[in-house]
Amino acid sequence: MTNIKDIARLAGVSVSTVSRVLNNYKHVARDKRESVLRVIEEMNYTPNKNAIDLIRGETRTIGVILPYNNNPAFDQILNGILNKALEHDFSITVLPSIYSKEKEVEYLKKLKSKLYDGIIITSRANDWETIIPYTGYGSIVSCEYTQHKEIGCSYMDRYSSYLDAFQLLKNKGHYAVAFTTARIESNSTKQMIGAYKEVFGEFQPKYHISGCLCLEDGYKAAEHFLHLPERPTAVYANGDEVAGGIYLYAKSQQLKIPADLAIIGQENQPIGIGMGITTVDHQLTKIGEQAFSLVIKKSREKVKIPYHIVERDSV
């Protein structure tokens, strides 16, 4: 089997020259480059990627820890990462975690093995004290804010966005407001409950349902909310798909939107656009794009992406 030493001997150049040609370095004499490329073609030589990565000291591959691969919000972040990866000729490896602490650590250990140049964490189960030691082996970037100086982050101000969404409903005359979240133990759920208390003064557990990820979850949540003795007049859903499910159930009960029930969703997704649902757009695609830029620059910068509320007919 032909190897890099054979190529060097047949081309009449040094092994380091062959290495520079394989890595597409610019500073190689034209005649030597042409000689190496000719031998490679004649010998039908395929370079060993792992060997090239070892020589180059990088893999041009970024790992992306993603809790779910069928969640529209995480799909938007991943889409932004993929856009920039294609632009910069990097490969992306998706690392599904299902919020398993053990899986996350297993992926972080791959930085130590130099399988990735860096890792982007879209959402996490582990605390930062567990994650930070792995920054010694490669760049780690978060898609949520962290004050730790070892971690760069691309993030949005979720708490302020929740305040604005609840305040919008209050300004429209709604005080019996329900909301849905994805994970009861997540930081975003804690922030949403905090924002609810700040705007309405009291948190009523009957107006909160967690574990909502899709349209079907929203449908079931609406069925619960709308059969309460004191049913809510508005619902803030943690995603436009969940909001779509709430919308469909409300319509099945002959309720008018927004006269009988106001609805706000999140992330400006196609289903929300089609149904005319007001949404809080956290610009997740831009968060993914910025996270990729930070990780390839090995930057520890904190970059805040602005959100905005898109008002439609559901409020």
UniProtKB/TrEMBL annotation:
It holds the Pfam family Peripla_BP_1. InterPro entries: HTH_LacI (IPR000843), Lambda_DNA-bd_dom_sf (IPR010982), Peripla_BP/Lac1_sug-bd_dom (IPR001761), Peripla_BP_I (IPR028082). Keywords: DNA-binding, Transcription, Transcription regulation. SUPFAM superfamilies: lambda repressor-like DNA-binding domains, Periplasmic binding protein-like I. Gene3D superfamilies: 3.40.50.2300, lambda repressor-like DNA-binding domains. The keyword Ion transport does not apply. Residues 2-56 form the HTH lacI-type domain. PANTHER family: CATABOLITE CONTROL PROTEIN B (PTHR30146:SF105), LACI-RELATED TRANSCRIPTIONAL REPRESSOR (PTHR30146). This is LacI family transcriptional regulator. It comes from Cytobacillus oceanisediminis. The lineage of its organism: Bacteria, Bacillati, Bacillota, Bacilli, Bacillales.
